[in-house]
Design brief:
The chain is mainly alpha-helical and 133 residues long. It is 71% helix and 0% strand. Helix 1 crosses helix 2, helix 1 crosses helix 3 and helix 4 runs antiparallel to helix 5. It starts with 6 loop residues before the first helix and ends with a helix.
Length: 133
């Protein structure tokens, strides 16, 4: 048994699963185990991860459309896949509505900086600020 996940770590697991499913991978036990990276998800965190992932899977077209509507001279298919997964995660969380948008944006920027490039944090922050309006 690994260490239990914090909420930030659960968000990162949800990001990994959205990244994988957004690139055509199946959402199954193997995907879960890889995303957990040796940690355990207590019931509230597992529920949170499932809620975010299912919101993304159920509303993917709507989420992508909302992101696309806020772009200028850019298309969603040009995004780094990591940046797109972070944006999808944050948009799904915003739709759920249980976490303040400022927290969602802050956590998304951290993930973007960790998994993206030098511009990812600012890019994600700017786009999510528009999405939160």
């Amino acid at each position: 048994m690994g260490q239990a996940l914090s909420r930030s770590e659960s968000r990162e697991v949800a990001f990994r699963l959205i990244f994988a499913t957004g690139n055509g991978a199946a959402f199954d036990q193997d995907a879960w185990m890889l995303a957990l990276d040796g940690k355990t998800a207590p019931a509230p965190e597992e529920q949170y991860i499932n809620q975010v992932l299912n919101t993304f899977l159920d509303l993917r077209e709507k989420i992508d459309a909302q992101i696309s509507e806020r772009l200028q001279k850019w298309t969603i298919d040009r995004f780094r896949q990591t940046d797109l997964a972070v944006l999808r995660l944050a948009a799904a969380e915003m739709m759920i509505g249980t976490v303040p948008n400022a927290v969602i944006i802050n956590e998304a920027v951290k993930l973007a900086k960790k998994y993206g490039d030098a511009q990812s944090g600012g890019f994600v922050n700017g786009l999510l600020a528009k999405l939160a309006e």
